[in-house]
Design brief:
Layout (H helix, E strand, L loop, with lengths): L8 E4 L8 H7 L3 E4 L6 H8 L1 H9 L6 E7 L6 E2 L11 E6 H10 L8 E8 H4 L19 E7 L3 E5 L4 E8 L2 E6 L4 H4 L29 H6 L2 E5 L4 E4 L4 E6 L4 E8 L9 H11 L5 H16 L22 H15 L2
Parallel strand pairs: 1-2, 4-8
Antiparallel strand pairs: 2-12, 3-5, 3-6, 6-7, 7-14, 8-13, 9-12, 9-14, 10-11, 10-13
């Protein structure tokens, strides 16, 4: 792949209990927070050795099984589809965290180890108490994000996007993020909506060996790309819906991330809107789709004041500012219409 020269902007001096969250949210661009979580106990154990980090994790483990991906050495850590896209190139199943950690250590020196990856495991559910000495003070900002841990060897999570805003903390090993702004969806060649290797649509392009004949627009994506290389203790702020490929560069890697939404919980998932649009709009004649695009621009993507400025407040109905009551009414109407 052509070298990506643009690096993600960096900030120094942020601490887990003091970081410029409002500034990051307002900027809406990726930012590396160098050394932000370096004083975490787990980071320090990982700097001693992979074995020390594993022992530390086991000291909190409550025995619950965790979602784990198992792949052959031949996939070289790339969690993706099989060759004819009839399925995935790895096996996903529940396993004991301590046994998976032992297996990673067993193959630590292998040149081509089996792919082992513990994905998106809620920390409080399987490692209760660990966050007391390894956490970010989101409560000070009125947020209660989902805190998850990701553990594996040299794995590669294909380029995808997540709806929540993300703070990804590199705890052990080194990580490389290749990042693209949301508008690059047109140049990243997303694959099927389902099934997917990890729950989100992924780019079909192999970044290590891109086929520019098959995916010519990927050159345009590369021109917009940024790279973030993280050392243990670094954190990466990643805004909602930015595309990112994540590579574990070390034989043993741990990442802890925080996902949050600033929108009220009563709002529905935009992904449901996309599926409903596929059902209702995508296959209509082009002239109808264009007309509906104008309506969406008017009601959804344009100024929220425009559709109601000429309507008395008492008569605005669903066009009024959304609250829990209105959301419940709209959801009931939609469920009723979909079930007809």
């Amino acid at each position: 792949m052509a070298e990506i020269t643009r690096k993600v902007r960096e900030l120094e001096g942020a601490r887990p209990d003091d970081f410029p969250l409002a500034e990051l949210m307002a900027g809406a661009e990726p930012v590396i927070l160098r050394g932000m979580v370096r004083d975490w106990e787990l980071v320090q154990e990982g700097l001693r050795s992979a074995g020390c980090a594993v022992a530390y994790l086991k000291s909190f483990y409550n025995g619950r099984t965790v979602g784990t991906y198992f792949g052959s050495p031949q996939i070289a850590g790339r969690l993706f589809y099989n060759e004819d896209m009839t399925g995935l190139n790895f096996d996903a199943r529940r396993a004991r965290l301590d046994l998976v950690l032992d297996e990673i250590l067993e193959h630590l020196e292998d040149e081509q180890p089996p792919t082992l990856y513990i994905a998106a495991t809620t920390i409080d559910a399987c490692l209760p108490g660990m966050r007391a000495k390894n956490d970010v003070a989101f409560a000070a900002y009125g947020l209660d994000p989902l805190a998850s841990i990701w553990i594996g060897n040299r794995t590669l999570v294909s380029c995808h996007q997540d709806a929540p805003t993300n703070l990804a903390c590199c705890v052990a090993g080194r990580r490389k993020f290749t990042i693209f702004p949301p508008e690059q969806v047109f140049n990243l060649y997303p694959g099927p909506l389902d099934p997917t290797p990890g729950g989100q649509v992924v780019s079909m392009v192999d970044f290590a060996n891109p086929d520019f004949e098959r995916y010519p627009r990927f050159r345009e994506a590369l021109a917009a790309a940024q790279v973030a290389e993280l050392e243990p203790g670094d954190a990466l702020f990643l805004p909602s819906l930015w595309w990112h490929q994540v590579e574990g560069l070390s034989p043993f890697n741990i990442l802890i991330n925080y996902w949050w939404n600033v929108s009220p919980k009563f709002m529905g998932s935009p992904m449901h809107v996309l599926y409903h649009a596929i059902l209702s709009l995508r296959d209509r004649p082009a002239s109808e789709r264009q007309a509906w695009k104008h309506l969406f621009d008017y009601y959804i993507f344009g100024p929220s004041s425009l559709p109601v400025e000429h309507i008395p407040e008492h008569a605005r109905g669903a066009l009024s500012p959304l609250d829990e009551v209105t959301a419940r009414q709209i959801r009931a109407m939609l469920l009723n219409s979909l079930n007809r």
